[in-house]
Amino acid sequence: MGHTDKGDGTDSVERHLDLPRIFAERGISRRDFMKFCTAMSAVLALPVTLVPKIAAALEADGRPSIIWLEFQSCTGDTEALLRAANPTVGEIVLDVLSVDYSETIMAAAGHQAEEARMKTLKEQKGKYIAVVEGAIPVKDGGIYCCIAGKSALDIARDVCGNALATITVGTCASYGGIPAAAPNPTGAVGVKEAVPGATVINLPGCPVNTDNLVATVVHFLTFGKLPAVDGKGRPLFAYGKRIHDNCERRPHFDAGQYVEAWGSEAHRSGHCLYKMGCKGPETFHNCPIQRYNEKTNWPVGSGHGCAGCSEPQFWDTMTPFYKRLPNVPGFGVETTADKIGTGLAVATAAAFAAHGVVSAFRRKDEPEREKEE
Amino acid sequence: MAKIVVDPITRIEGHLRIQAEVEGGRITDAWSSSTMFRGIEKILKGRDPRDAWYFTQRFCGVCTTVHSIASIRAVENALNIRIPLNAELIRNLIIGIQVVQDHVIHFYHLHALDWVDVVSALKADPAKTAALAASLSDWPLNSPTYFKGIQEKLKAFVAKGRLGPFANAYWGHPAYKLPPEANLMATAHYLEALDWQREVIKIHAILGSKNPHPQTFLVGGMAIPIDPNSQNALNADKIAEIGELLKRAKTFVEKVYIPDLLAVASFYKEWAGIGAGVGNYLSCGEYPLDNSGKAEKLWFPAGIILNRDLSKVYPIDQKKITESVAHSWYEGSDAGVHPYDGQTEPKYTGPKPPYDMIDTTGKYSWVKSPRYDGTSMETGPLATILVAYASGHAGAKGAVDMVLKKLGVGPEALFSTLGRTAARGIETLLVAQELSKWLDMLVANVKGGDLAVHNGEKWDPATWPREAAGFGWHNAPRGALSHWIRIKDQKIENYQAVVPSTWNASPRDGKGQRGPYEAALVGTPMADPSKPLEILRTIHSFDPCLACAVHVVDAGGGEMVQVKVV
């Protein structure tokens, strides 16, 4: 694609986006466009009456510039973006957003890549959205992650510090993730800790669920502000409920039907995976509803327990993964199924009485850092 | 002489930096640096070996299955666990579709823009493009109207003036050789491949919950139950869906990827004489055809080729693997030691950021330098295909000969940048064609009444010996991968990974031998040193994965209690 940039800044000022026209050009009908808006309102848990408002926002707003940074990452969140379906990654890249910097997909390399980022930083200062994937190592002067000779910490301060907002994709950028697992050899932290002044919304998960990423952006375009978050900086629309409470296998838990061996009849029949180490009762995420790969499946749906990947420090607090959660109130091998079910119901009610973000199962020795929204 | 730096190398996984010297329009020397380190193996110490696959999977989210596979194999090897046949076949399906999807993404989304000038596509004649496409394949999407539509979308995008990921690139560079029509065809397929990859990888979601990072692996088997009479297990419905997706995968590879690869390659034949590299190749073999664990039951054979001599394939002797840290930011031996005797501590001696140049006379990368019998080895699709070809693998022989014939070149052309890119296509084709056979084998086995997916005899750590050790090989999309584990008192005592991109991206060793990237860059022509398109071509032909490549080899010290060959 040629050097069509006029270079006089008019382009960035008049960045009107006529989404319906562009969708039409790409063979997407008005009907499909409205379907997309409806799907977004579902992800965001918004009433259907807001669909026209979402549509209006998408029609009126320009494509926001995105700078997608990768630090101590595995690129799994970029890969997740490639699996996006509503809209597809092709539509995201060409039509919905202006992805001005993403090392994994961009054509330019080296100083040409750096120039592209600098251009957006300068021309869209305070207006672009930063997306961060991977943790930021702060130990030893930031030497454990350098790009073009600059430390991840310096780049994050520059890019996130001057962004309209920063969306962290995945648990590493949110809370440090796997590089921060004990003994955290490189001093890895999440963006909010590395750049305290930045406006950050956390989308943890390993990887991020792309539906939630798109929904966050759409929410922002629609309402002009970021969605409400819990005490861990996670949007309530995606992390407001425990996996356990939306799990399709919950009736088996309540009925005391558990898998106790892989491949057993109980396993084949889809019974509850609690005894195989499922961390659903302590994990807040919309996996059971939203699922992955166009709603094809999610861990429990394929017979493996939840690993708790959207929770801070899950690498240390949720492991060993196959060990059942300890100290669940009213729960023990000797407890009858009825008692378990009742105990859980009471605990759940209590949790949601406290606005649903405090896990009733958190061990007593852990500080309760959550605060009410 | 010009000194150039390309940092970041984009369209790869991870953080890679190349420093090179250019004289008389050619690269005279090159240095490969990785600039990111996490230390996951250090993090693994003291944890439950059954959790290791979940941690090591996060080495990389692009090759998102490979470290899980190598990890469970290592633990199963250490504990002498034989997994059920169903689990072996499900693993083959997961590994195979990963290879196919990953290679197609690499070709179109990471590598194609090195060869395809998207801007030139705007000048193409859609009717001629359709004629070109029809001459290559009977893929249905090849009408003039279709290509005109793609071209108009491109024009509209360019007219908006904000090119996003296509901004500031090398369009119009003299090294681009494709006619506008081929550029338009390839650009259309770039977009189609984006949709295709999203679909076919749903096999991972069906069998393993999600992709990236499928969550279904278990030491001893797989977590996806099989039961034709349950809706919560792998049943006829899901098998049929997988079968359809496999068909879709194969059709696209046969009708789009391979024809595109051959068409593009035919315009860049000079790259069959560029980028050869070290000329030694390592493949560890893959796709067990039963659950015996025997090397001779692998569909792709294991072996080593030295000095580009296809008349001999040597067996792998794991004792000959060493890793040097002469130029890597770790404490340890310049000479190189076996992974089990490796060193542990990071020792950064590079410049304090921000910096312009790294002094390459000393240590200059977070990647170590693995060597086999003291020599640099290339691994990856080219090694896989060369070892299979030289071992007389019928499929590889047929596919290689077909490609060489269509391009009108001899086998020596394989030792090059172009050969590496072609071999990736050949591997994809062979695997895409074979995958449905493994699904058929699975169905036949289930039909016979075998529903087992997991061997639980050693699931309880109380059944383990006090000490155990083992390793697992896996021939990943990027080549030979091995994980090494030592278990003591039910916990990980030591964990190491020798990764394909570590072999390929390695810096110089204690003897000053270049790693494969570095060797392959020497002699590469550069039309304009300020626009490093040619460097990208050769580096991308390896499909670098740097998050994988950087790891700590822990000093656990002492000898292995037992070492078994898979």
From TrEMBL, chain A:
Q: Where in the cell is it found?
A: Periplasm
Q: Which residues form the NADH:ubiquinone oxidoreductase-like 20kDa subunit domain?
A: 74-219
InterPro entries tied to this protein: Cytochrome-c3_hydrogenase_C, NADH_UbQ_OxRdtase-like_20kDa, NiFe-Hase_small_C_sf, NiFe_Hase_small_N_sf, NiFe_hydrogenase_ssu, TAT_signal, TAT_signal_bac_arc
Keywords from the named record: 3Fe-4S, 4Fe-4S, Iron, Iron-sulfur, Metal-binding, Oxidoreductase, Periplasm, Signal
Q: Where is the Cytochrome-c3 hydrogenase C-terminal domain?
A: 239-322
Q: Respond yes or no to whether keyword Transcription is given for this record.
A: no
Q: Look up the record and name the cofactor or cofactors this protein needs.
A: [3Fe-4S] cluster; [4Fe-4S] cluster
Q: Which Pfam families match?
A: NiFe_hyd_SSU_C (PF14720), Oxidored_q6 (PF01058)
Q: Which domain of life is it from?
A: Bacteria
Q: How does it assemble?
A: Heterodimer of a large and a small subunit.
NCBIfam families xrefs: hydA, TAT_signal_seq
Which family does the UniProt entry place this protein in?
Belongs to the [NiFe]/[NiFeSe] hydrogenase small subunit family.
Record's protein name: Hydrogenase small subunit
TrEMBL record, chain B:
Under Pfam families, the record lists:
NiFeSe_Hases
Compartment(s) of residence: Cell envelope
Q: Which SUPFAM superfamilies match?
A: HydB/Nqo4-like (SSF56762)
Cofactor requirements of the protein: Ni(2+)
Keywords from the UniProt entry: Metal-binding, Nickel, Oxidoreductase
Q: How does it assemble?
A: Heterodimer of a large and a small subunit.
Family stated for the protein in its record:
Belongs to the [NiFe]/[NiFeSe] hydrogenase large subunit family.
From the Swiss-Prot or TrEMBL record, give the protein name. Answer: Nickel-dependent hydrogenase large subunit
Q: Which organism is it from?
A: Geomobilimonas luticola
